[in-house]
């Protein structure tokens, strides 16, 4: 047995192959498919580095693994999607009709219709902010919790991972066309349609950039509007922080939740039903993550009131 192998086994025991093996296996898969991108190589390298460098880096890797797992899952879900999702299974105008029945903005008008008819550059900029930073903010928030409340960080990140994997499953089971798609293409579902930044294209045009166009061009699929994970992410933070948060920090979580909901509708990315589904996914994920940690990490339960700083 080589010294490197002994070192890895001393860190992880009989499971020593899994921490680095999973990202490396996915890297090998995308290489074989001819779909390799720089981030695939970087992610595998970072994962192996932290997983095997030292006991301290191993602990850090174990804490942040759920975030890495989401990255792999988000990229990988495009492959079963090609096999399982066909035009006949995508919810399109039926969902718009449900939206009109439940949340009409006026006769034959959804709130998304109303927003596009009353779009304004100031509102575009305000609502572009949460959409521009939502994924990064989740990582920054987890980093903050890493230093001030490690148990809550684990609760948040495991809920984050569970919620995203629930969404991946829903994308396959109930594929849904977003509002902008029906506005652009009508009720006909075309599986070859390209992703769009929708209302965020106005922000690109305003500044003469292509940030949102480039970001959404990498989307796994057009037909993944339900659930809205944009709306789920703020609720994950809200629910995992509820007991530890103070009167100063809890309103921040509530404001972020409200602004993201309005942004999702205003920017033509989601139906209100998508947002509600996202909130429910977040609730289920927080409960499941708490039970998971209680069972497999009993020495590190989610934070209770007064045990750490609010946030």
Annotate the secondary structure layout.
Layout: H1 3-12, H2 17-33, H3 38-52, H4 55-76, H5 78-84, H6 93-102, H7 111-117, H8 121-148, H9 150-173, H10 179-185, H11 201-207, H12 211-216, H13 229-241, H14 250-266, H15 272-296
Features of the shown structure:
single chain, 311 residues, mainly alpha, 2 domains, 15 helices
Summarize the structure.
Helices cover 69% and strands 0% of the residues. The protein has 311 residues and is mainly α.
Strand count, sense and barrel status of the largest sheet are: none
Number of helices: 15
Instruction: Write down the oligomeric state.
Output: single chain
- CA radius of gyration is 21 Å
Task: Tell me the total number of β-strands.
Answer: 0
What is the percentage of strand-forming residues?
under 5%
How many angstroms separate the termini?
47 Å
Helix content: 55-70%
User: In terms of structural class, how would the helical and strand content be classed?
Assistant: mainly alpha
Which overall shape is indicated by the principal axes computed on the Cα atoms? globular
- H-E string: HHHHHHHHHHHHHHH
How would you state the average pLDDT, rounded? 90
Query: How many discrete domains?
Result: 2
Low-confidence stretches: 303-308
How does this model look, in words?
This protein is an all-alpha fold and 311 residues long. It folds into two domains: 1-76; 87-296, no CATH class. It is 69% helix and 0% strand. It contains 15 helices and no strands. It has helices at 3-12, 17-33, 38-52, 55-76, 78-84, 93-102, 111-117, 121-148, 150-173, 179-185, 201-207, 211-216, 229-241, 250-266, 272-296. The radius of gyration is 21 Å and the shape is globular. The termini are far apart. The relative contact order is 0.12. Mean pLDDT is 90; it is low at 303-308.
């Amino acid at each position: 047995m080589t010294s490197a192998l002994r070192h890895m086994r001393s860190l992880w025991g009989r499971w020593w192959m899994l921490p680095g093996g999973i990202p490396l296996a996915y890297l090998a898969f995308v290489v074989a498919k001819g779909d390799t991108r720089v981030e695939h190589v970087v992610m595998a390298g970072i994962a192996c580095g932290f997983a095997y460098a030292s006991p301290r880096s191993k602990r850090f890797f174990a804490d942040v693994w759920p975030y890495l797992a989401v990255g792999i899952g988000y990229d990988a879900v495009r492959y079963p999607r090609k096999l399982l999702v066909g035009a006949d299974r995508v919810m399109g105008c039926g969902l718009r009709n449900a939206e009109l029945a439940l949340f009409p903005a006026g006769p034959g008008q959804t709130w998304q219709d109303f927003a596009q008819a009353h779009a304004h550059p100031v509102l575009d900029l305000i609502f572009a902010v949460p959409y521009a930073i939502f994924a990064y903010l989740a990582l920054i928030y987890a980093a903050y919790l890493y230093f001030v409340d490690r148990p809550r960080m684990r609760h948040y990140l495991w809920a984050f991972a569970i919620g995203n994997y629930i969404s991946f499953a829903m994308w396959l089971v109930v594929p849904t066309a977003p509002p902008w798609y029906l506005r652009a293409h009508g009720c006909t579902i075309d599986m070859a349609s390209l992703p769009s930044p929708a209302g965020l294209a106005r922000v690109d045009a305003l500044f003469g950039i292509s940030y949102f166009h480039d970001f959404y061009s990498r989307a796994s699929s057009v037909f993944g509007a339900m659930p809205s994970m944009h709306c789920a992410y703020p609720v994950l933070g809200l629910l995992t922080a509820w007991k530890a948060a103070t009167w100063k920090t809890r309103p921040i979580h509530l404001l972020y939740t409200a602004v993201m909901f309005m942004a999702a509708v205003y920017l033509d990315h989601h139906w209100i039903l998508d947002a509600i589904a996202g909130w429910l996914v977040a609730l289920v994920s927080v409960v499941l993550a708490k039970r998971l940690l209680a069972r497999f990490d009993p020495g590190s339960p989610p934070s209770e009131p007064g045990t750490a700083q609010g946030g």
